[in-house]
Amino acid sequence: MSTTLRLLILEDDPYDAKLEIATLEETGYACQWERVETRAEFLARLDTPDYDLILADYSLPTFDGLTALKLFLERDLDLPFILVSGTLGEEVAIESLKAGATDYVLKTRLSRLSPVVQRALREKEEQQQRRRAEKLLQSLNQAARAMEQALAPEEIFTAVATELEKLGVRCTIFLTDDEVRYLFPKYLSHVPEAVKALEKLVGIKTERFSISIKDVDLYRKVVWEKETVFLNDCEDATRQVLPRPAKMFAGQIVTRLKMRRFIAAPLIANDEIIGVLTVQSDNLIQDDAPAITAFAHQMAAAWRKAQLFEQAQQEIIERVRAEEERERLLAQVQEQARRVQQIVDTVPEGVLLLDADGQVVLTNPLGRKDLLALANASVGDTLTHLGKRPLAELLIPPYQGFWHEVALGDPSPRVFEIIAQPIETGPTPGGWVMVIRDMTQEREFQRYSQQQARLAAVGQLAAGIAHDFNNIMATIVLYAQIAARAEGLSARDRERLATINQQAQHATHLIQQILDFSRRSTLERHPLDLALLLKEHVKMLARTLPESITVEIAYGLDEYMVNADPTRMQQVTMNLAVNARDAMPEGGELRFGLERMEVRPGESPPLLEMETGEWVLLTVSDTGTGIPPDVLPRIFDPFFTTKAPGEGSGLGLPQVHGIVKQHGGEIDVQSQEGQGTTFTIYLPALPVHLAEQPVWELLSLAQGQGETVLVVEDNAATREALVDSLELLNYQALEATNGQEALKIIEQRGSEITLVLSDVVMPEMGGIALFHALRQRGLEVKVVLMTGHPLEKELESLQAQGLVNWLPKPVNLAHLAQTTARVLEEG
Question: pTM value?
Answer without folding.
Answer: 0.34
